[in-house]
Design brief:
The chain has about 475 residues and is of the alpha+beta class. About 30% of the residues lie in helices and about 15% in strands. It has two domains: about 325 residues, Penicillin V Acylase, Chain A (4-Layer Sandwich); about 90 residues, no CATH class. Helix 8 runs parallel beside helix 10 and helix 9 packs antiparallel against helix 10.
């Protein structure tokens, strides 16, 4: 139930490729922790419980040949002991929502595709056990992927040979290009390269339409067009102008289309579009070059002041976001600084976006969550608790806290812009980048705790227990 965005390098302020997503949950409390995988789950192979008879066994039981590549990567998984992660097996990596590997390949996974139509579910039903699902996609693909396109090809091959357990959309990027893939049945998928001068906005419904399957910048499952034609999934199928979303999904659900409309309205306000159309343009050009700060605002947005105020069921910025990230990739920088993750711990409505350089290979203890129970000394719960307190405070208190985060973010952005002007791959700059990310994490955590204490004191006359604060 997430909201995602991909922006090409000619559409951004700094010539960066950008992928971003709010990771939302049906539950408000869903603990996340930061980590850096010096090696993937299957390495080393000797005496490794994840490797059985030459096969890598992932958390939900899916088995694949042990990959040849074993790239290190950053990650934000669920807590190792998270009782909410129903597929957890022997504390394996689970729901690693995003990351960048040592080849500067980035993944954000996933946007759940909830509009798969019943006809497709009957024709090519999702694999019930041991299929390719959100919980394992980042873990499976990121330590192997040598480029964004390679990541798409790897994922597509796994879907065709093993089968998908659910419908998903995944965002891929490297320093050269960005790709978007939709998995719409057990064995069928479609992926497109995002034009350099455009963006794509994604909610929880299939988006791919007007696709020429013969184009070089389009990848898809074997037999996709034949599957559509033979099963009459479209009235007039056209291999050069395919409506994948209509063939496999049910376009037009306001729960999804409202968010797509809002993102396009915010980034391209010059284009007037009716609300609640069945389908919106797949790619659009922004009215002006998009900055990281613009994307932060989009991921926090709601319908206030628009035609859908008081009408739309689902905003983009919601309390039940469990983490939010903006990944930028800049080909002009040296290798160690090409990729940066702007990470919000918990919902960005109550926490800042913190810059994490990919050289950050040691995470502060406060951000490595060992348990899924409320623990005030852990960073995730500090941000979660602050947001819960904010929700019962006056508007002026809310403005003070959100204003504090905006000031902090603006400082982070200014510091980043200053640093990259001279950053090289030398030891001193790598050390400075690591220290800065650690400092930014600790400063944000300290500010969240202090703000919580302040508004708790203000609200002392109200009797509010811990259980009320964190749910």
């Amino acid at each position: 139930m997430c909201t995602g965005l991909i922006i090409g390098k000619e559409a951004t302020e700094d010539g960066i490729i950008l992928i971003a997503r709010n990771e939302d949950s049906s539950k408000v409390n869903w603990d996340k922790c930061l980590t850096y995988r010096n090696s993937p789950q299957y390495y080393p192979e000797i005496d490794n419980p994840a490797v059985q008879n030459g096969k890598w066994v992932l958390s939900n039981g899916v088995k694949v040949k042990v990959p040849e590549n074993n790239f290190s990567y950053s990650s934000i998984p669920d807590s190792p002991s998270c009782s909410n992660a129903t597929d957890t097996v022997k504390r394996r990596f689970e729901f690693e929502a995003r990351g960048i590997n040592e080849r500067n390949v980035a993944i954000s996974a996933t946007n759940s595709m909830e509009d798969i139509n019943d006809r497709v579910k009957e024709l090519d039903p999702f694999v019930k056990d041991g299929g390719i699902v959100e919980a394992v996609i980042t873990t499976l693909i990121l330590p192997q992927a040598e480029s964004a396109r390679h990541g798409v090809e790897l994922l597509g091959n796994y879907v065709e040979t093993i089968g998908a357990g659910e419908g998903n959309a995944v965002l891929f990027a490297d320093i050269h290009e960005a790709w978007y893939i939709e998995i719409a049945s057990a064995h069928h998928w479609l992926a497109v390269k995002v034009p350099d001068d455009s963006y794509i906005a994604v909610a929880n419904g299939l988006r791919l339409h007007d696709i020429d399957l013969k184009e070089e910048d389009v990848l898809h499952s074997n037999g996709l067009y034949e599957f559509i034609v033979s099963n009459h999934l479209l009235d007039t199928p056209d291999i050069g102008n395919l409506n994948f979303a209509k063939a496999f999904g049910m376009p037009g659900n306001p729960y999804n289309s409202d968010r797509v409309w809002l993102m396009q309205k915010l980034l391209t306000p010059s284009k007037s579009q009716a609300t609640r159309l069945e389908q919106y343009p797949l790619f659009m050009k922004p009215d002006s070059k998009v900055s990281v700060k613009n994307v932060m605002n989009v991921l926090r947005s709601n319908y206030k002041g628009t035609l859908l105020q008081g009408i739309a069921e689902r905003a983009i910025g919601v309390n039940r976001t469990i983490e939010s990230h903006i990944i930028t990739l800049n080909s002009k920088l040296s290798d160690n600084f090409k990729g940066v993750i702007w990470q919000s711990i918990s919902s960005p409505l109550g926490s800042p976006y913190i810059p994490l350089y990919t050289v950050l290979d040691r995470i502060p203890d406060d951000f490595t969550l060992p348990d899924d129970a409320y623990a005030p000394v852990q960073a995730f719960w500090a941000f979660r608790a602050l947001l819960a307190r904010m929700n019962i405070c006056s508007d002026s208190v809310k403005r003070d806290i959100t204003g504090m985060w905006h000031v902090m973010e603006n400082g982070f952005i200014a510091d980043y812009n200053m640093f990259i002007k001279s950053a090289t791959d030398n030891h001193d700059d790598i050390r400075r980048a690591r220290q800065y990310s650690i400092s930014a994490l600790n400063r944000s955590y300290k500010a969240a705790k202090q703000a919580y204490e302040n508004i708790t004191a203000i609200s002392a006359q109200h009797s509010i227990g811990v259980e009320e604060v964190v749910v």
